[in-house]
Amino acid sequence: MAGILAWFWNERFWLPHNVTWADLKNTDEATFPQAEDLYLAFPLAFCIFMIRLVFERFIARPCALGLKIQANGPQKAQPNAILEKVFTAITKHPDEKRLEGLSKQLDWDVRTIQRWFRQRRNQEKPSTLTRFCESMWRFTFYLYIFTYGVRFLKKTSWLWNTRESWYNYPYQPLTADLHYYYIVELSFYLSLLFSQFTDIRRKDFLIMFLHHLATLSLITFSYVNNMVRVGTLVMCLHDAADVLLEAAKMANYAKCQRLCDLIFVMFALVFISTRLGIYPVWILNTTLFESWEIVGPYPSWWVFNFLLILLQVLHSFWSYLIIKIACKAISKGKVSKDDRSDVESSSDEDEEQPPTQKVHNSATNGTNGATRTNGYLSGAPCQDEH
Questions:
Q1: Burial letters for 320-336: b for 16+ Cβ neighbours within 10 Å, e otherwise?
Q2: Rounded to a whole number, what is the distance in angstroms from the first to the last CA of the chain?
């Protein structure tokens, strides 16, 4: 174990040339980031998760009920032992051949069976009230941490001149405000990583999981090798759009369509301008070029920049989704559709047929209906969004 730790904390990987861990030990004159500081994030992440539960129960839920958001979820499928057995033991998405077999067995038309499976899948989705509470929690945290970040950064020199992030690196002292900012952000994303398995499951689950891992890795990397100055710029830049995203989702759940559309437009403008404009021009420029000029590359420098570039790839993917939704909004007049929907719905024609008698030509002509969404903002591309 000692050998593994010695290999992992190799100074030649983490630190620039001619710098050792002993050089970054805390003294009476200056405090530097220490790897063991990050252990504090685990109990704090648990505390944040508990605060979230209390917040959603006693603050967000009353607000949702005050906005007349219903606690009931999607329409439940009628009980059917045969279909339930297929759903739980075989497949939640039966193919055409299985649908035809079930149609003959139950004497139901194919479209009705398709609707049953769709309703049964939706039955496991959380209610709009649950979604609203989740978004309100994230909105509150992002608003708080973004406000804190802005107030902190406007007093720093590296906000106005990014080259200050690298002067005298890595011998840059760690202040109490900066330490607090980092640990709280790390704890929050750590709580998101674990709660992702209990929260509303999005279609981009794996992408968001990768996003959270990249974010945690970036925060950890930048803290351990004292790249915290540029790290604060990255965190604050990302929090700006996340505040608007959660606000737009809340407006969508409350059926305030005009407000939702307005905030969504603001979110799209802020997201694309910060993630595709400011981020590469401001952040990647300083981490790739200014740091190379002032400090020079070393192994963990390459890893750090690889993670930042990976984040830019995710930015591009989500920007594509946002632009796609914006184009639909322009053509349809409102923000209402999303290919990443959490709740499936069907055409009106599909919903009108009762599950009583089989329509014979439906076996060849029936479809699953248009795959629709309950709004782009019900399954938004950033949780944050980093």
A1: ebbeebbebbeeeeebb
A2: 33
Question: Which of residues 112 and 345 earns the better pLDDT score?
Answer: 112
d(CA 114, CA 93): 9
Q: Is the pLDDT of residue 298 over 90?
A: yes
Q: What angle do CA 303, 308, 313 make, to 5 degrees?
A: 120
3-state helix, strand and coil shares in percent for the chain, rounded to the nearest 5: 70, 0, 30
**Spatial distance between the Cα atoms of 275 and 137, rounded to a whole number of angstroms:** 23
Show the CA angle centred on residue 202, arms to residues 198 and 204, nearest 5°.
Answer: 125
Q: How far is CA 126 from the centre of its chain?
A: 17
Average pLDDT over the chain, rounded to whole? Answer: 84
Angle between helices 176-195 and 41-55 (to 10 degrees): 60
Residue type for position 82: I
The confidence score (pLDDT) of residue 320 equals: 92
Of 81-90, 178-187, 321-330, 336-345, least confident by mean pLDDT is 336-345
Q: What is the pTM of this model?
A: 0.79
Q: Average of pLDDT values for 169-187?
A: 96
Confidence of residue 48 (pLDDT cuts 50, 70, 90): very high
Q: Which of 321, 317, 310 is nearest to 213 (CA)?
A: 310
212's tokens: 């959270």
Dump pLDDT digits (tens) for 249-262. 999 999 999 999 99
Residues 6 or more apart whose Cβ sits within 8 Å of residue 351: 115
The rounded distance, in Å, linking the Cα atoms of 127 and 150 is 35
- What would the DSSP string read from start to end of 198-209? TSPPPTTHHHHH
Neighbours of 50 (CB within 10 A): 11
Give the CA distances from residue 181 to residues 35, 178, 220, 327, in Å, rounded to whole numbers and listed in that order. 16, 5, 13, 37
